[in-house]
UniProtKB/TrEMBL annotation:
CDD domains: NTF2_like. It comes from Novosphingobium panipatense. Residues 5-134 form the SnoaL-like domain. It comes from the Bacteria. This is SnoaL-like domain-containing protein.
Amino acid sequence: MTLDDLLAREALRDLVARYTTAGDRLRIEEFVSCFTEDAVLESERVAADRLFRYEGREAIRAWQERWRAGEGDTHGATFVRHHLSTSKIDLLGPATAQGRTYWVAWTDIGPDHAGYYLDAFRREGGEWLIAHRRVRMDWESPQSLFRTAVGRSA
């Protein structure tokens, strides 16, 4: 492993942390800045009423704006904190990488839902960005405060 590899991996870990922090705090511009202009953000392996797919920064921004506005009483949580754990990053070339990162979301009820991100990363203008994020949920509490949130903000 070279110094450039280590720097790339650390930049990618920072990117994933920035996405999570911005998303939990509903800092839309910071959140959207984590993506390439043509990025795809989508869910997989969830019930049909909770599937989503947003293509491009503007679609991702519009979704976050709906979420922040609380349209349709988005969810019942007073806070959400995504805790990241294992993160496996594979550098595929000087400007491409892929990753898998496990997460659990905590809300007022404690552990609310959990899963992992499957990411395709691309380096543009010297900065690593998310080109494609697939959000996969493995588990949710029967009392989840986010059970209907995605459908309400779609």
